[in-house]
Structure formats: structure tokens, C-alpha cells
Amino acid sequence: MDTLTEGKYTLNFKVLHKELDQASTMANYIADSAILTKGPDFLTITFMLIDNQTILGFQIDSNGDWVEAINQKVKDEDNRRYELFELNDITELMTARVQYELGYEGRIIKGDEEVRLEFDIENLAPIE
């Protein structure tokens, strides 16, 4: 995305099932917009995890390697976590992994799921 000028943008996206063309269950725990920041020599994306206690881990695929956030900020009063990732480029589709733990009918369910993030790159909205 070489044509992107420096600045901050809102980037809407969908959290999709790994293989099916439908929303992943994890879509309930990840905000559907991210902040894309373009600097003179860097590109970052910030995701908001809506339920910090349920989402234990979040990684994105970068050239076949799972990468962790370079920075995190937790807002305990809102049970939210913001995760900042460095990017080489942004494409319409990205793979991510989510580790979670949640209660369901008196049991604790743990999982590690791959999801697809489908970005609406054509409709980036600059943040003033």
C-alpha cells in the first residue's frame, strides 16, 4: 500500500471463520475497526479486543510467522485491551490466531483458533 500518505486511519474489517465464509465466533470479542498508522518509515495497526479476560492471546500472520503485538494497553475498567502490531504492508486478507478461555454452562472452554481478517482497504477513513 505505497499510495497511503502519512497519518492515522480507521480501517473496518470482518473477523471470519478460518475456512467458511461466515463470521467467526471470535468476532464477538474483537472490535470491527482498527487504527492503521502510516509514518515516514513504518506502518502499524492497533486492534481492540473487547473482552480482555476472555481473549488470552492474539497474534497475526506475517510472512508465515505468528507475531505478537509490539505493545499492549489494558483498560481494566472497560475490560478492553489494545494491541499494536508492526506491518510490512496491509492486504485485504490477513490470518490471525486467538487464544481464549470462557465459561459456558458451568464449564471452562479453552481454545486456540485461526481466523481470517478481511479488511475494507478501499474505504480507509482518515482520523483528524
Describe this structure in words.
The protein has 128 residues and is mainly beta. The protein has a single domain, classed as Immunoglobulin-like (Sandwich), CATH 2.60.40.1850. The protein is 0% helix and 58% strand. The protein contains no helices and ten strands. Strands 1, 2, 3, 4, 5, 6, 7, 8, 9 and 10 form a ten-stranded antiparallel β-sheet that branches. The two termini are 20 Å apart.
Using only CA atoms, what is the Rg?
A: 15 Å
- Tell me, what's the shape? globular
Low-pLDDT residue spans: none
Query: What is the domain tally?
Result: 1
Global structural class = mainly beta
Provide the CATH architecture. Answer: Sandwich
The CATH class label is Mainly Beta
Q: How would you sum up the major sheet?
A: 10 strands, antiparallel
Number of strands: 10
The percentage of residues in β strands lies in over 45%
CATH topology category name:
Immunoglobulin-like
